[in-house]
Design brief:
homodimer; 7-stranded mixed beta sheet; 46% helix; 5-stranded mixed beta sheet; alpha/beta; 338 residues; 11 helices
């Protein structure tokens, strides 16, 4: 079983990516990781830890400044494009992990790998923590900023299938992100989508306001990529602002500093809880092969977690489940596909 | 100078609303408050504190369960509709404050009061704290869930005028909420709006991601009401989830409990900072008269702050400024008005 990893994607590449691959190799005896990128640099990091690691040389790197589609077309010798080419052609490779440019990963996925039959648009589905022990996923968090109802229905199906695997839940609670809880609330898109959501073979629990995102009351939040991006980044920004404000208050007071020493453990637990990268990256759901996008600033643990996530999704047949559920849908929402 | 207050709007009405009016009367010697609602109950609360307070009897109440437009049309003897009728007909009344149903307040504003000449759609503009000493406002936070570019341009102008009054800033930094910082990023709406924003007589600073909302780097965030609602409620939900998680961690550990005692002051300051109601409510910008919507759960201090806000906006001629700025705009964005 092979997973291809873009060794030069992300702020901490190649060191953290290569080390993440080594961690993954240790955790799974059946795994081989294919690293793409500058062979000399990768070998320098690896040293003699070469068992079940293959290297495919690529001299170029796709950056955040590159235009995604142009980069995928023209940077043929980049670590990301090489990784996609391998994913496409090598049937023993089950998935791809990259912490590189989100836009380029999405473009590569569409242009090189393609969609699962019946899926109108693949979607990014990051995990967020909640105040309970359960996590929540947002589909789509930014891959599709303009959506139709059909897209949202597919996001719901893919999100439900994905969540059921990662959380071991038979019927994850799927909600439509909206500006009110009542059925009649919403913009044109959500009002049109709501009744259609009820017809899907999933556990649709109705509308969810953004206020409820971390309540733990829902498992899958379905939305267009623009709203999902606002939600995801709004949560990140708020968490960061609150923690930095609290830090400032603590620094400003002698007694608070003393108190902080006693509370260090509690803060550490909170920080771990809020770490959105701890489970690995966000899968790009709906592509013919498994693709996981890591946060650009991620470290070796996140890369390792993402490789493990690819294996878990493969072993639990995520894509086969999605395809079966899409076939199951009535014909009325399948007109735009293929 | 008179302000009309819907004494029966909100979860804590009429007690907190009436007490809020009394607080405002004490703070401003030129102010008269007109309270609408059940006269007997209002008088019970007021006792002998009747100086510069007028009561207009209204036996009915508009609830969150009412359909907004139907309630405004049919509940003629409700405290909210009476308040709007007074605002419309009594020229000495400069504005209205209510903590009632948002939908009904918006419907009343449109149906009874109407828009400032040239404004395509009025918008709600709540204030959020940032990690700096400056606040940020979101326009629109939910009044208009489907928008065109023209609406967003008007939100930008109204938000800029409003922020300049409340913060004493000559050129507030106005940003377009988007899924990326670069000019080419966005959905159809924001991509179309970006170049038009540059033509406005405001300090447009470009796109802002939701992650930056509490950074203090921008003063006015312009967006459609659906995205604004997601942003506002996402921030609220995240803050509440983080604080409740931290509380749980503190309760779970003896040492953290001790630490909390030392840090109580720091937490209190954080809580005050995060209180989005402390400045009063959210104005409904772009109506012919000043209308401020309070949070349903607000207390007397918030009601008082909202009344003070109405006075400040009136004295600083908010609506005249908005009208002048709209006239100033080139003809290309004024075609759909009136």
């Amino acid at each position: 079983m092979k997973v291809v990893v873009d060794a030069f994607g992300g702020d901490n590449a190649p060191l953290e990516v290569v080390e993440g691959a080594v961690l993954a190799i240790k955790q799974n005896k059946d795994l081989t990781v294919v690293l793409t990128g500058d062979e000399i640099k990768i070998k320098e990091i690896l040293g003699d830890r070469i068992e079940r690691i293959e290297i495919v040389d690529a001299k170029d790197v796709v950056t955040n400044e590159d235009s995604p589609t142009i980069a995928i077309r023209q940077k043929k010798d980049s670590s990301l494009v090489r990784a996609f080419d391998l994913l496409k052609t090598d049937e023993t490779i089950i998935g791809l992990v990259s912490a590189g440019s989100t836009g380029a990963i999405l473009a590569g996925a569409i242009m090189k790998i393609g969609r699962i039959k019946g899926i109108s648009r693949p979607a990014l589905a990051p995990i967020l923590p909640t105040k309970t022990d359960r996590d929540v996923i947002i589909v789509d968090s930014g891959a599709n900023v303009d959506c139709k109802s059909e897209n949202l229905l597919h996001f719901a199906i893919m999100g439900s299938a994905y969540y059921s695997i990662i959380a071991g839940e038979k019927a994850p609670r799927v909600a439509l992100l909206n500006n009110g809880a009542e059925e009649h609330k919403g913009n044109e898109l959500t009002k049109e989508t709501y009744p259609l959501m009820k017809t899907l073979p999933i556990n649709f629990v109705g509308n969810s306001e953004a206020r409820e995102v971390m309540s733990g009351d829902v498992d899958v939040i379905v939305c267009d990529g623009f709203a999902g991006n606002v939600l995801l980044k709004g949560v990140e920004g708020t968490a960061s602002a609150i923690l930095s404000t609290l830090k400032k208050e603590v620094k400003a007071s002698f007694w608070a500093k003393i108190g902080y020493l006693f509370m260090k453990g509690a803060f550490k637990k909170l920080k771990t809880k809020l770490d959105i990268n701890k489970h690995g990256g966000a899968p790009f759901l709906g592509c013919k092969k498994l693709i996981v996008k890591n946060h650009g600033s991620c470290g070796r643990d996140n890369i390792c977690a993402s490789i493990m996530q690819v294996i878990k999704l493969h072993e639990n047949k995520l894509n086969e489940k999605i395809e079966a559920m899409i076939q199951d849908m009535t014909g009325k929402v399948g007109t735009e596909n293929d």
